Amino acid sequence: GTFVTKVTATDADDPVYGNSAKLVYSILEGQPYFSIEPHTAIIKTALPNMDREAKEEYFVVIQAKDMGGHMGGLSGTTTVTITLTDVNDNPPKFAQSLYHFSVMEDVALGEPIGRVKANDLDIGENAKSSYDIIEGDGMDIFEITTDAQTQDGIIRVRKPLDFETKKSYTLKVEAANIHIDPRFLSGGPFKDTATVKIVVEDADEPPVFSSPTYLLEVHENAALNSVLGQVTAHDPDVSSSPIRFSIDRHTDLERQFNINAEDGKITLATPLDRETSTWHNITIVATETRNHSQVSRVPVAIKVLDVNDNAPEFASEHEAFLCENGKPGQVIQIVSAVDKDDPKNGHYFLYSLLPEMVNNPNFTIKKNEDNTLSILAKHSGFSRQKQEVYLLPIVISDSGTPPMSSTSTLTIRVCGCSSEGIVQSCNVEAYVLPIGLSMGALIAILACIILLLVIVVLFVTLRRHKNEPLIIKDDEDVRENIIRYDDEGGGEEDTEAFDIATLQNPDGINGFLPRKDIKPDLQFMPRQGLAPVPNGVDVDEFINVRLHEADNDPTAPPYDSIQIYGYEGKGSAAGSLSSLESSTSDSDQNFDYLSEWGPRFKRLGELYSVGESDKET
């Protein structure tokens, strides 16, 4: 009895014709699922709890009949398509109650290892489900997420697996609808569960060190080959392959350490010096002997401990200045010392004079609370004329075990000072300047002397250059080295500079071959001069006459530069093929021999034979 829809029909007849316009509706097809009110055309469901999953779409044929449905009335029909919409009235169901998966123990974290699927007969939002692990011994090892596209449950690894520790896991997985319709809660829980068993398979794993890092300490005076410490590693696989240890030499370029390949003991290979390097960081490599591709690395930090092997010394080279007018007990200089060693309790220095200088009549020393030393004068009246420089050896000792000491010498220079104690000069001026000149005056005098010497040298150099004669001596005259070449070469046409005998006719080597690129040796009589041309002569005739004379005069330039090679090679039956300077003409030659040269010259022979026959006729 649930309302579905309402249909309407119209009648074109006029209502005045009785009851012709009164329509009555009925269902011809679609029973017994739907019913219709005859006069209101309201369609309702005829059965309760219709199931979309069983049938989603219905076709209902409605008839409308006028005249109140009486006989003689007219009728019309229409088809109504009724589609059932989905509601969440079905829970998700796993396709199987037990799933089996296997995974290698070295699988990466987050890698999916399997999928489970809970099917829901509903569609759209009503079919969406969420997955969760509710029980099992691997709840903290695995996780399950929902694939938004396929609605599958994807099982992933959350923590590393270890075949040697645990070989299998059992999980209980639940799938539940996200959107639940309260009207159908009485239909039961909208969720389902399934059991998932995961088997871990063994994989060849690299060695595992007993510690992720190692820290070793060694004194800098440790003996060579002494053991500094040991690293250990094992093969976690069931086969338990033996392990070999080595040092990555990229981390120990100076090869200061060695390691025993069998037991992993690290030994010292070269002496250590804490003052040079306090820390050494190396990498130890562990390799399986049965599978060299399985390698592990671990960092090892080695701290070099200090020993008292350096003597203290002055922090810098000190030079003290003592005023001639100084007073007894006056502090001349305060010095400090440094030690390259680093004792745990800090530095404490002891200062003393050499045994033979303990009773020094001029100076004494005093230790200060800040570990420094003060140098004091015992008396006054120091004089540069008497002694300009004093050397005071001081012994500096530390408090280490064993104690180390060194002797440093302090230079004390006697200087002239003002009444306020400001140092003015430390040179022995009394001997150098008895007339009382100051150091500044002496420097000015020296500067003037040097300037005068420079001026004199420049003047002499200029005079010397001025007095030198301008005429160059014969042996220095570079013009005599110039070689003049007055003859002009023949260029590319000059063949006299090399042997061209191979291009000449051997039969005429001793003969004379005329050159056409030089003036002929033949002497011709000079041409008779033409009489002056009268005015009005034809210029064209004059030019032609001059041209004819030049063409027939071999002594007139330009000369013919054609090179003549009349020799065609020995053994040629044809002789010379050149027509230049030939002693015979075409009319004097017989070409019958061309027919004897073979098929290639047959046609040529016929042509010349025809020519000879034409001449005879």
UniProtKB/TrEMBL annotation:
- The residue ranges crossing the membrane are 431-460
**Pfam families on file:** CADH_Y-type_LIR (PF01049), Cadherin (PF00028)
Q: Which keywords belong to this entry?
A: Calcium, Cell adhesion, Cell membrane, Cleavage on pair of basic residues, Glycoprotein, Membrane, Metal-binding, Repeat, Signal, Transmembrane, Transmembrane helix
Q: What membrane topology does the annotation report for this chain?
A: Single-pass type I membrane protein
Q: Where does the signal sequence lie? A: none
Q: Which GO terms describe its biological process?
A: adherens junction organization; calcium-dependent cell-cell adhesion via plasma membrane cell adhesion molecules; cell migration; cell morphogenesis; cell-cell adhesion mediated by cadherin; cell-cell junction assembly; homophilic cell adhesion via plasma membrane adhesion molecules
Note the PROSITE patterns from the entry: CADHERIN_1 (PS00232), CADHERIN_2 (PS50268)
Q: Which InterPro entries match?
A: Cadherin (IPR039808), Cadherin-like_dom (IPR002126), Cadherin-like_sf (IPR015919), Cadherin_CS (IPR020894), Cadherin_Y-type_LIR (IPR000233), Catenin-bd_sf (IPR027397)
Q: Which residues form the Cadherin domain?
A: 1-94, 95-209, 210-314, 314-436
Cellular localisation? Cell membrane
Q: What GO cellular component entries does it have? A: adherens junction; axon terminus; catenin complex; synaptic cleft
Q: Which domain of life is it from?
A: Eukaryota
Q: Which GO terms describe its molecular function?
A: beta-catenin binding; cadherin binding; calcium ion binding
Q: Does the keyword Repeat apply?
A: yes
Segments of this protein annotated with the region Disordered: 571-592
Describe the function of this protein: Cadherins are calcium-dependent cell adhesion proteins.
This chain's protein is named CADH8 protein
Q: What is this protein's gene name?
A: Cdh8
